[in-house]
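Might I ask for a little of your time on a matter of protein folding? What I wish to show you is a protein chain and, alongside it, a tokenised description of its three-dimensional fold. I should value your view on which stretches of the chain appear to form regular backbone elements. You will find the record immediately after this paragraph:
***
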Amino acid sequence: MSWRHPAPLADGRSRHAGRTVDHAEEWPRHAGVAPCMTTIGIIGAGNIGSQLARLAVQHGHQVVIANSRGPETLTDLVAELGEHATAGTREDAATQGDIVVVTVPLGAIETIPVEPLVGKVVIDTDNYYPERDGHIAALDHETTTTAEMLQDHLVGAKVVKAFNHIGAADLTGHATPSGTADRRALVVAGDDETAKRTVVDLIDEFGFDTVDAGPLAEGWRIQRDTPGYGPRMTADELRDALAAAKRYRDM
């Protein structure tokens, strides 16, 4: 498989899925399909969830954020985020979100509500750490991936793997406008091309280029202990890292 990122044209445009897209001249404007004031539901208010919430409100989106302890425990975070953010239950985040981020420990996947997410784009940020999550045989044997596990649970949703290989602080610290030289890139993987395009556009708006790893089953290429997991890389560097990745059992 070849991991190709659209190269910029001489006039500053790029080609996406056979069409030419003009890059916005001012950041954070962008040419994607995720419009301003999209509601982003975030299930999980830890380091990654909180930082994604900050990026979302910074770029004009509404946020509904939830955790396992209840909305009342998110008062300080919501106050920081401002008028475009509210705390809710997991059902609230799933129901109200146009795009929903799931960023919870793997053991909590079964608690994610299914029906409200049917037909929606769901971003999976999870990683597998046996010392934290306990051993999961299918992941140990690499017969599945964390995103495929979430997709199996969320029947009818459109799961896209993203944001799993960047430190929380870097989500805001490394974000730069489209067209910036040596811009950091992030990986996406997903089985639904339209859903993946939506997440690519959101990532671009948030400040990063993207590299498409292919379907969810290829998400192992950016799991922990692979070359692309963690370091800041450009799109070209990240494509090379994906190609060089080895499965745990081959290491």
Q: What stands out?
A: The CA atoms of residues 47 and 168 lie 6 Å apart.
